[in-house]
Amino acid sequence: MENVSYEIFILTAFQDFGSKKEAYFCLSLISYMLIIIFNSSLVILIYNEKKLHEPMYIFLCNLLFCELVGSTSFYIKFMFDLQTDVHVISRSLCFTQMFFIYIYSSTEISILTVMAHDRYIAINAPLHYITIFSTTKVQKLIFVSWIYPIFMMSIGMMLSARLPLCGNEINRVYCNNWEIVKLSCTDTSSNNIYGFFVICTFLIPFIFIVYSYLKILSVCLSSSRSQKHKAFQTCLPHLVTLIFFLSSLLFELIGSRFYVKRITNAVTAFASLEFLTVPPLLNPLIYGMILPEIRKRVAHLFLKRKKQSS
């Protein structure tokens, strides 16, 4: 194949959407609007309510903001393509979208790790919680949770951007790094090694999360009924969020790295979208329904507005 520097990419997965594009557009628009409303509402609530200016809610605020970044980087381009017959994206916009989607996924893992550590300290060493999670430490944890993924993904994007390509068709509905690497005309060993290194570095937080919740479980088993209930209330949303996100991210990794003949392109496309659509939509609902302080503040706001209107 001829070595060409392509300035546009063609997103071929839209071909399987057929005549149902309008229905998918409406569904996507509703989903995106709900994500914006739910996540923004909780972020604003946590920001405005001084009683929620605690480490757990500050971390939650960052998690919800991260999901807004990931959803926006995907949905806007996706909905635009559903309304057109030519599904192309410029090289610069492709790498920009890819960068922010990967920032979302990697930062989400980092913040979930920090939240697991927060719950571990709160349940295993409650008397030292305020001392351990000082304002300075919370700021440092948030900074690292964002800056480390940005640094790692920036290197990955630079490695992919330098590759000469022999094609420009991406079998996805959004830009995917592995799909671009597969289009390269040259040896991609450095990209593969770095990709493996990145995956390994994010396995460490996963191991830490599992360890934290196992320790929490061991403490809960030897605690009183009221303490078990309190631990269950605070840890359940984190666990549900973690399971949803990791399972959907696993679908995307398997779908992008392994080709399975029995799975159609449409199924692969939808499976690869799960980590971008399901967690941002469900997480604010999960936290809003289960965390008692969030429920109280939401109920208080509704009652306040009801009194003002009457």
Provide tags for this entry:
globular, mainly alpha, 3-stranded mixed beta sheet, 310 residues, Rhopdopsin 7-helix transmembrane proteins
How would you characterize the overall build of this protein?
The chain is built from 10 helices and 3 strands, in the order βααβαααβααααα. The model has no long low-confidence stretch (mean pLDDT about 85). Helix 1 runs parallel beside helix 9 and helix 5 runs antiparallel to helix 7. Strands 2-1-3 form a 3-stranded mixed β-sheet. It is mostly helical. It has a single domain, classed as Up-down Bundle (Rhopdopsin 7-helix transmembrane proteins).
CATH architecture: Up-down Bundle
Order of helices and strands: EHHEHHHEHHHHH
CATH third-level topology:
Rhopdopsin 7-helix transmembrane proteins
Strand order of the largest sheet: 2-1-3
The CATH top-level class label: Mainly Alpha
Number of strand elements: 3
Shape by Cα distribution: globular
Strand percentage lies at under 5%
- Report the sheet with the most strands, covering strand number, pairing sense and barrel closure: 3 strands, mixed
What is the CA-based Rg, rounded?
A: 21 Å
- Mean of all residue-level pLDDT scores: 83
